[in-house]
Structure to design on (155 residues):
């Protein structure tokens, strides 16, 4: 009896995309729930695509650059930025290099959310360390850093 394609797929198990997505989902759900418990009920996982890059660039970013970073459309990123601005997590400022353009940057409230999200993420890492051991968690993080560096080297 021939093996069906579906059986081959099932036998193969999870591929790298799922192996990365599942832990990512666990982290984002934990951060969203933790922020909710801390009173940041208007911040959802979708907003992380704005908050994370802005935390890496305190001078702010243009919405087009945010959209590119997040790999979503400009209207989608504007929708997310509008929400975060309405809730005082980000602000729009004039771009010092181009007076016609604007940059988005974190407000003090936005930095509070970023600090809280990072602390919750550290708690998730502590849980993973308890599950895997310190050495394996450090190996995982190093492998991911090396993979990211290799992608950046290709650019």
């Amino acid at each position: 009896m021939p093996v069906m394609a579906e059986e081959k797929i099932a036998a193969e198990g999870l591929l790298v995309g799922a192996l990365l997505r599942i832990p990512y989902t666990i982290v984002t759900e934990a951060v969203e729930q933790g922020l909710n418990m801390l009173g940041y009920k208007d911040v959802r996982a979708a907003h992380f695509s704005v908050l994370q890059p802005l935390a890496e660039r305190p001078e702010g970013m243009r919405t087009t650059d945010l959209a590119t970073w997040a790999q979503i459309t400009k209207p989608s990123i504007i929708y997310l930025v509008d929400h975060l601005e309405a809730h005082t997590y980000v602000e729009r400022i004039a771009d010092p290099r181009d007076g016609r353009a604007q940059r988005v940057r974190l407000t003090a409230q936005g930095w509070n959310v970023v600090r809280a999200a990072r602390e919750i993420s550290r708690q998730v890492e502590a849980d993973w360390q308890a599950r895997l051991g310190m050495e394996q968690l450090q190996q995982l993080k190093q492998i991911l850093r090396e993979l990211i560096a290799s992608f950046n080297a290709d650019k």
